[in-house]
Amino acid sequence: MELVCEQLGKHYGTIWAVHDVTLRAGSGIIGLVGPNGAGKTTLMRMIATLLVQTKGSITWNGHDTRTHGAEVRQVLGYLPQDFGLYPEFSGRQFLRYIATMKGLPRGVMQKRVDEMLELVNLESVASRKLRTYSGGMRQRIGIAQALLNDPSLLIVDEPTVGLDPEERVRFRTLLATLNTDRLIILSTHIISDVEAIANRVIIMNKGQIHTDTTPEDLLREAEGHVWTVVADAATAARLQTQHQLTALVNHRDGIQLRIVSATRPTENAVLVEPNLEDAYMMTVRGQKAVLTV
What we know:
By secondary structure, the chain is α/β, with parallel strands linked by helices. About 35% of the residues lie in helices and about 30% in strands. The strands form 3 sheets. It has a 6-stranded mixed β-sheet with strand order 6-7-8-3-9-10, with helices on both faces. A 4-stranded antiparallel β-sheet has the order 2-1-4-5, covered by helices on one side. The longest helix is centred in the middle third of the chain and has 14 residues, at about 105-120. It is globular, with a radius of gyration of 21 Å.
């Protein structure tokens, strides 16, 4: 399988939301990250055939998505950041409806619905109306609908927003088990999700691909640039204005800061191993980025 985007662009008026994006991807999990407004959602909506590009091309297994969009949608699973629900449907009714819309054979439909309800741990509330679901439960039913047709191309936009820590781990484990013979594009601000499961990281900014690498190579670039410092409140405030911080934690003996810097920020700074969030922040240093940890 292969997804190819060539010189892809989408503009609204005079603003290019995505501009000159070229990428090639086979099976695996891509972590798509970047600041708010970087163009990630626009890119995913074009790949999912929900938006027509202004220029460039998208092909899936050699077929242009402009002329073979229906074929792409048959193998596509898509979870947008905000997806519509029918509040008077039960969870089971909603999944049956989506399965029908996706063209699943009647003989397969019920089995897949039952499997998905079990997969996202919603069997016990499958008969409840969706309007009674919590935010986390709604997110899980969204994940279930994206997987109903066993897609070979799965696109998920901020899938763990609203999930508690246990559910986030469960979802990441699920994605990792789906990795075989499937391309998964995971867009998120939660860098720990990418660190846990992605084998490729694409950083977008200002509508273009800023970096296309592996988590290991991104971490390697950050080695020797991450420090921890314990400081009083006044020193901590000064360091925040002078350096890029990736964490700040109050301790009994002061405030511990995690700093990305090419040089030692203070005499008592201790060099530490970077994590992927540190590496991401170093890569987009000087540009506004919104992260959740």
